[in-house]
């Protein structure tokens, strides 16, 4: 078994799509913005979308002290976290063989609530992971804001990564019957930044914003 | 309480973002392709991305009879399903007030395994929900393919819908200090369909594929 792998992260099917590369894991996390965090609440499943940042081998999730989810994580730390980036629709000659192409990550772990003394650093790290360089261009966090925030950390130690390649694989017997097959790529990119107000319209677009807009 | 609402779907915070419109729920589901399905497996949370279709007030999920998740749903029918469509990054003057704009759906329900006699109809309905009109242009399903597939249905009876509007709401004291604020819209669209092979390259692009490519 590879590092970062466990019985429950091993792909049971279609394992030709599995990636065991840490670079792939980090790239998928760094290129995206929202994960779906599942936990067990009163014996029932609950899944909530959350913004995140990655710093080294740690995933940070943040929420408000008023957030029900954050309070639940204090007593139910076991989480399963999933991120899926759809890259294309795969249209085969049959609907049976049709599907989707994607890059996806599933993470198993325990959410650890970051203690107060580490919170300000973790918050800035999380913000700079979302929009690199943005912290230095922003109004600094206040103590009150830090106090109003909960950050939880999940180590990236038990993960599963899947990457599809954009190909159609119709069987021989479906060929030359006049059915079309192909890929419809899905393209996601950032549009031009829109200043919020007159003050912002007069200022130059900050470096961090220009960089992230160019990235996509 | 509205129809489709329950104690657990009521938003505890930021409820100005809640939508109680069934049209919004259906539109978000119809415009997207992947949901994250959470269930409790041996007391632990598990969340898996799945393709889906909506037919009326029913969400259909499909998988292989070989799929571990599908087998687990037979004995653990309680699910929580989440879909998040990121529409923009909201860049405030402070990282504290920064965030994301999105449309999201959370669905609570019980997964019901579709019996064999209804499966062929449900499968075609699911396929036509993903790419409207595609079933008529595809090689028909075989009995063997239908047998190899499990479809589960979840009724859209207990749901929560959130829609952000793209605005920045910095407090007065953060204004006129020289910090930029704005919105970075995220645009997702389908690219030009890519035929899979020589046969497909010679055929016209089918209507259903042209339609879905134009839609985005």
Compute the separation of the termini of chain A in Å.
35 Å
Largest interface: A-B, 94 and 94 residues
Rg value of chain A? 21 Å
SS content category of chain A: alpha+beta
Q: Give the strand tally of chain A.
A: 11
Mean pLDDT of chain A: 89
The CATH first-level class of the largest domain in chain A comes to Mainly Beta
At a glance:
With 216 residues, chain A is α+β, with helices and mostly antiparallel strands. Chain A is built from six helices and eleven strands.
Written overview of the protein:
2 copies of one chain form a homodimer. Residues 11-16 of chain A have low confidence and may be disordered. Chain A has 6 helices and 11 strands. Chain A is an alpha+beta fold and 216 residues long. Chain A folds into 2 domains: 15-185, Roll (Pnp Oxidase, Chain A); 191-216, no CATH class. In chain A, 24% of the residues lie in helices and 38% in strands. Chain A has helices spanning 22-31, 68-75, 116-130, 143-147, 198-202, 207-215; strands at residues 18-19, 34-41, 44-55, 58-64, 78-91, 99-110, 112-113, 149-155, 158-163, 182-190, 194-195. In chain A, strands 1, 2, 3, 4, 5, 6, 7, 8, 9 and 10 form a 10-stranded antiparallel beta sheet that branches. The longest helix of chain A is centred in the middle third of the chain and has 15 residues, at 116-130. The radius of gyration of chain A is 21 Å and the shape is globular. At the A-B interface, strand 2, strand 3, strand 5, strand 6 and helix 3 of A face strand 2, strand 3, strand 5, strand 6 and helix 3 of B. Strand 11 of chain A pairs antiparallel with strand 10 (182-190) of chain B.
